[in-house]
From TrEMBL:
Gene Ontology molecular functions: GTP 3',8'-cyclase activity
Cited Gene3D superfamilies: Aldolase class I (3.20.20.70)
NCBIfam families xref list: moaA
Record-annotated Radical SAM core domain positions: 12-233
Protein name as catalogued: GTP 3',8-cyclase
Record's keyword annotation contains Iron: yes
Keyword Iron: yes
Catalytic activity line of the entry: GTP + AH2 + S-adenosyl-L-methionine = (8S)-3',8-cyclo-7,8-dihydroguanosine 5'-triphosphate + 5'-deoxyadenosine + L-methionine + A + H(+)
Length: 336
């Protein structure tokens, strides 16, 4: 083990955890079929969600343990009332160097000026189709024009932007090359993600034969000059550059899980459950700790111990699930 400060989160595999993903709600205004059923999911009562005060307190504790980057997710985070106030307060926490957001873009445009003013460090925009009709088929909502307006607004303001496209056999694979083309004239990172089984039902979504290998093959056929870029080992995306493009292209093997060896992130669900891995079933009810008489020091030590239970990779985490061996959660309830 390297000589790290005592108040640093290090797992049994010597990986330092410095990135926290926080889901602020399980609610979403889209119904993407790979995330939840058409009828939606049973949303949680408000009292079951962490309050903003609890999120800030926990973020401060995590910052004291070496967390440097925070990403806010949902559901759709902009559905949470006064979300901008939470972003503003997170940016003020000593030790937090970057605050990012993952959003579907439906409500985001009206807040872009405020996001720029408070210095949001980056936005991941979910966009699975560039065809309005196909967008509707995937999301079950007619919001394509709104999302594209948000994308334009982000880029016009110079906010660091990544586009996340989940690649799904028979649904949008015909658009992979066109989506990559968005990086031709704009400084945007277009990232292609393997489909995962978190669709809110017991029905498997892993019959997708579009692995990261096939996605890369498809891209190389269209862009033969595509070259691999150097990136931080903890980056889940393998990055590529087409010489004529201003932006870049990334591929995330989210189901193949080839990036686990360097994973530096931990998750907090909207209900206050800590997940050491996307594929585990939750390892700590931190909300109960926050609502008891536990001190910050107490919680700090519990979090250190919790990270020490982290599995080697996503396959081990999935295998060791005890309550529900078949993944049936919605990504909306986990935190995208």
């Amino acid at each position: 083990m390297t000589n790290l400060p005592i108040n640093t989160l290090v797992d049994p595999w010597n990986r330092t955890i410095d990135y926290l993903r926080i889901a602020v709600t399980d609610r979403c205004n889209l119904r993407c079929f790979y995330c939840m059923p058409a009828e939606g999911i049973n949303y949680l009562p408000k009292k079951e969600l962490l309050t903003y005060e609890e999120i800030i307190r926990l973020a401060e504790i995590f910052a004291s343990l070496g967390i440097k980057k925070i990403r806010l997710t949902g559901g759709e985070p902009f559905l949470r009332k006064d979300f901008i106030s939470l972003l503003t307060n997170l940016k003020k926490i000593p030790g937090i160097e970057a605050v990012h957001i993952t959003t579907n873009g439906v409500l985001t445009h009206q807040y872009l000026d405020q996001m720029q003013e408070i210095g949001i460090d980056g936005v991941n925009l979910s966009l699975d189709s560039l065809d309005k009709e196909n967008f509707y088929k995937i999301t079950r909502r007619d919001e394509f024009d709104t999302v594209m307006k948000t994308l334009g607004g982000l880029l016009d303001r110079g906010i660091d932007t990544k586009i996340n496209m989940v690649v799904m056999h028979g649904k949008n694979t015909q658009e992979v090359v066109a989506m990559a083309g968005l990086a031709r004239h704009r400084k945007v990172s277009v990232r292609f993600i393997e489909e995962m089984p978190f669709n809110g039902s017991a029905q498997s979504a892993t019959q997708n034969n579009w692995s990261h290998v096939r996605i890369l093959d498809e891209l190389k056929q269209a862009f033969p000059m595509l070259t691999k870029l150097d990136s931080h080992p903890s980056n889940p995306a393998t990055l590529y550059q087409e010489p004529s493009h201003l932006g870049n292209i990334g591929i995330i093997p989210a189901f193949s899980r080839t990036f686990c060896d360097a994973c530096n992130r931990i998750r907090l669900t909207a209900t206050g459950t800590i997940k050491n891995c996307l594929y585990d079933e939750g390892v700590l009810d931190v909300k109960a700790l926050l609502r008891s008489d536990q001190t910050d020091d107490d919680i700090q030590q519990i979090l250190i111990a919790t990270v020490q239970k982290r599995e080697k990779d996503g396959f081990a985490a999935e295998k060791n699930r005890t309550v529900d061996q078949n993944i049936s959660e919605s990504m909306s309830s986990i935190g995208g």
